[in-house]
Each structure stands twice: as structure tokens, then as C-alpha cells.
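Write out this protein's structure.
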Amino acid sequence: MKREGHPRQHRRRHGNSTSGMRRCWGNFYRENKEHRRRMRELSQPFKPRRKVLALLILSFHIGIAASWAVAYSVMDLVFRYWLPQYGHTPLRQYLVVVLTFSLLFYAMKLIRLFFAPVRRQMDWFLEMINAMKQLSRGNFNVNLQTNPRFMGQFSPLVDSFNEMASELSRMEEMRQEFISNVSHEIQSPLTSIGGFARALQQDDLAPETRKRYVQIIETESKRLSRMSDNLLKLTSLESNHHPFDKKAYRLDRQLRHLILSCEPLWQAKELEMDVDLSEVTIAADEDLMSQVWLNLLHNSIKFTPAGGTIGIALAGEAGRVRLVVTDSGPGLSQQALPHVFERFFKADPARDRSSGGSGLGLSIVKKIVEMHGGEVFADNASHGGARFTVLLPLS
């Protein structure tokens, strides 16, 4: 009955054909092969240890043999010329044994002193490997200590590693800050859009109130769109793959055209435009430089109070072009000046939010100017308003 039960059990598990048996033996062979492979991998680290242990034992025996040979030779000379009356006595054998182990001990001490720098260097290499593993896991707060007594030519390598870890840590902080700023800037208009969209669902809203809510939603949507465009533009510029079409053109004509295109903005605030443009020709990407001038103009118009003045002065000097944009606004505080060109920085967050700014315009200005080999600075004019200076090479 047991013999009859086995085929039925086998048929229930593997079917009636021999393919089930082949699959069964195939799976068993693969599992056994995988088990043997894992066992070989686990046994690999022990093979070098066995070799090192065997080498240490062999070296110890060679050291004993060499020490005994030297000790026997020395005692033979001593008893032959100074103590011949003792001959081969137990005292001579005892002194040979003591001298053998003394020579072996001091030889090991000398070898240890000789290999001490090598051991310290090996410890340093292991420490550096551990630090690299920490870097690969995202921990950038690592710092290797240097000791000039045994580091020697490796000191520049340690300094470079510490500098790399510091830069990676700074980049990680910037990345976290960038993500935090983007989340904050996106959350603000989304909250407004969601709140006013829920308010529009009320049936008893007055037409004027409903229209105002719709306008707010439209304004916040445009703000999100501008922020997205600026982020994409800034990312493209920083990737060094943005199209760059450099050609010669008249910078003064470009500025006049852009000032006229912004006329509805500065006319609405009754601003006075003090324009002094010399005839200057530069070699640059006209579309990218147009973005620079528009961002500076919009920034000045935004922060200049009604009835104020905006000054734009263009002049050529020794090998370069200087453009200065000033306004009669409140200016920049000393705390804000070092951070004006950082992404998402706002000297007056409340005012910038109400005017739809995202804090990316001046970052784009700085990146484009640096792409053209120029510089941009921000400070306060003598009358108290903000002043932005752009320096560009003539050729």
C-alpha cells in the first residue's frame, strides 16, 4: 500500500509525465549549486587568514632557529676562550636558552619598531576606506586627521579628501534648503487657490466677490507658472546645456527697446525713467541678455514707490561695458546684500509675495552674466535706493 501511495503522491505533485521529475531534479541541482557557491564565498575570507597564520608560525620557527644558532655560537666562544673549565655543563645550556629567547625578543622588538610606520599607514588606509564608505552612504560629516610625522606625501590627499567632504556637505545643505524653499513657495499659492476655490462653491456669494476670488486664483496660477518657468530656465542654465548663440549687436538699442516694452508698468506707477545710453556693441547671446535686463527692470519697477525715479546708465570703459540700474526705493539692508543673488532669497518677503515674485530673477541674472564672462554687483546708491551694476567684456 505504501508503494502504491508514492506514485499517486508524486502524480499529484509533479504530474504524470517525466517533465515533473526533471523539474524537480533541476530545482534540486540549482539549489545545491547555489548553496555550494555561497559556502565558497563564505570561506574566501578565511583562506588569507590561514596563509597568514602559517606564515607567522614559519617565521617564528625560523626566528627561534636563527636566535639559537647565534646564541650557541656566542656561548661556544665564551666557554672556549674565557671559561674552558666548564665545558658542556648545564650552565652553558641554560645560558644558551636564555640568550636565544633574549635575542628573539629583541629581534621582535626591532621588527615591530621597523614596521610601526607601515602599521600606522595601514590603519590610516583603513580609516580612509571607512570614511569613503560613510560618504557613499550620504554621511558627509567626516574628517580625516593628519600626522605629518608618518603621513608624508599623503598629507595633500587627506587635505583634498576633507575638502571634498566639506564641499559635499555644503552642497547637501544647499539641496535641502532648495527643496525646502521650493516646497514653501509652491505651498503658498496652492493654499490660496484651494481656499478661494472652496469659497467659490458657496451659492450666496455676491458677483463682485466671486469675480475677485476668480482674479486671485488666476493671479496665483500665473505666479506658479512663472515660478515653474524660472526653475526650468535656471536648471537649464546651470546644466551648461542651454543654447548659447553669441553674436555682435548694439546693446543700447536693445535696452531702449526693452524700456519701451515695459512702459505700461512704469507708466502705471508714474515713474520717471532717467536713461543715459552710450553707443555700445557687444558680443553676447541677445535673448539671454534680454532676460537679464528685463529682470533688473522689473525688479526696480517693483520696489520703486509711485512717482519715483529709475536710472539706467550704459557706458563703455577699458575693455568692458558697465551698466548701472538704480531706483529710488527703500534700498537693501546690510544683512540682505550678501544674499541678494541667492535662489529664493527675498529682502522683503511680504512685499515680494504680494507682487508675485519668486526670488529667482536675480539668480538667473547672475548666472547669465557669469556665462558671458561678466560680473554683477548689488549695493545702495547715495540717495538710498538700490543699485545694480553689470560688467561685461566688450568682445
